[in-house]
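Example 5.3 — Amino acid synthesis protein
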Amino acid sequence: MPDPQIRKTQVIVETIHHEFGPPPDAPVKRGASLAVIANPFAGRFEAELTPFMDDLKPLGLRMAQDLIDALGGDAGAITSYGKGAIVGTDGELEHGALWHVPGGYAMRELIAKSHAIVPSSKKVGVMGARLDVPISHADASYVRSHFDAMEVGIPDAPRPGEILLALVMTTGGRIHARMGGLAAEDVKGEDGLR
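Solution (predicted structure tokens):
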């Protein structure tokens, strides 16, 4: 397959300074890297999709690095992540699943402590559709303070023959998280869970 045809990219960063209660010692940054690409399978059924995952790997790495740079440039400061895709209406949900390996593994390659599975969401949607991308701790999925989501979308995407790809990262958990469970500072990092 040819390299992905990119129509546009976008990087969004929000800095969370306050969530009621006392201000945190340091703000938390949460960001998303988005790319809108042509869907090479739009309008038809294709039995073999997996070769396109390899074609998406360089894009995944570039998007992950762009997001790390936007969040301050220190991959060690990233504590949680997630990924997602919105497939235009001429495609199928499975086309969004192609993002699992190139999107997830790109972040795991660039973030030193990233043993945990990268949570994901995907859907077929019209232009302007929004997607809640789930977020969890990058090294231990059971860290409740980092269960979160970030809503992403681009007003003119995806067009029917496109896919909107998303990566999300944060520099911390929810401000004032107090639901118990495994604390980030107690993570052993042995199995991606605890």
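Remark. The domain at 6-186 is CATH 3.30.1330.110 (60s Ribosomal Protein L30; Chain: A;).
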